[in-house]
Amino acid sequence: MRLVLATANPGKAVELRAVLGAAAGLEVLEIVPRPPGLAEPEEDGASLADNARIKARAVVNATGQAAVADDTGLEVAALDGAPGLVTARFAGPHATFADNIAKLLAELEGVGDRRARWRTVALVCFPDGIEVAAEGSCDGVITESPRGSGGFGYDPVFVPDDGDGRTLAELSPEEKNAISHRGRAFRALAQRLGARR
Fold first, then answer.
1. 156 pLDDT exceeds 80?
2. Strand positions, DSSP E, the chain
3. 134-154: per-residue pLDDT in tens?
4. CB-based contacts of 36, cutoff 8 Å, min separation 6
5. For the segment 63-100, what is each residue's pLDDT rounded down to a tens digit?
6. Is the distance from CB of 107 to CB of 70 less than 8 angstroms?
7. CA-to-CA distance for 165 and 142, rounded, in angstroms?
8. Packing angle between helix 181-196 and helix 10-21, nearest 10 degrees?
9. Which H or E element spans position 12?
């Protein structure tokens, strides 16, 4: 099986390769980088699944090959589920990871309830129109300040309930993949892909 990555995020690409490459039942799996110069599609779906589909379908249309994509949202209880669908653009369309973290921490300043949940929908689109999808989630809390230098995105401010008190950015890649929303979603996706073979 050959899959083209829809993501242009290098940190995410590393995680997807690690999780899918280690998945049982997918011994023959080639993961190909996103084609250079391919424009990012507009993520204007009404759900994480919609946005994952938009990204995967754009790559299928450009390459004629099966593509794998995901969309992920951080849902913060005190913010009524925000940033949700706009997690990557929380601080604006050209926001950096640091911009998004700064806005999140500012929104939660003085807030006692810092519960949050990551949700990921992972999806493969095939050229014949068939889709295979899976979801993963990770509950935790938002810290009051960033900790750790690993991972990417909001990892320095998210402490997973299934961990030992460290943020995702303080975990090794293997530790993070074992409990993260993305790791869970892509392991479930790999099982479903393996069942199709």
1. yes
2. 2-5, 30-32, 67-76, 83-84, 115-125, 131-142, 158-160
3. 999 999 999 999 999 999 999
4. none
5. 999 999 999 999 999 999 999 999 999 999 999 999 99
6. no
7. 11
8. 50
9. helix 10-21
Domains observed in the chain: 2-196 (3.90.950.10)
Q: Residue 31: is its pLDDT beyond 90?
A: no
Q: Whose CA is closest to 124, among 178, 57, 172, 171?
A: 57
- The helix (H) or strand (E) run that includes residue 51 is helix 48-63
Between CA 91 and CA 74 the distance in angstroms is 13
Residue owning tokens 């996103």: 34
Q: What is the pTM of this model?
A: 0.90
Q: 120: helix, coil or strand?
A: strand
Indicate if the pLDDT at residue 27 is higher than 70. Answer: no
Residues with catalytic roles: 71
What are the residues whose beta carbons fall under 8 Å from the beta carbon of 62, sequence distance 6 or more?
35, 38
Enter the tokens of residue 167: 């943020």
Amino acid, single-letter form, for residue 84: G
- For residue 197, pLDDT over 80 is answered with no
151 and 11 in contact (C-beta within 8 Å)?
A: yes
Share of the chain above pLDDT 90, in %: 74
Q: How far is CA 164 from CA 18, 46, 55, 83, 155, in A?
A: 22, 34, 34, 25, 15
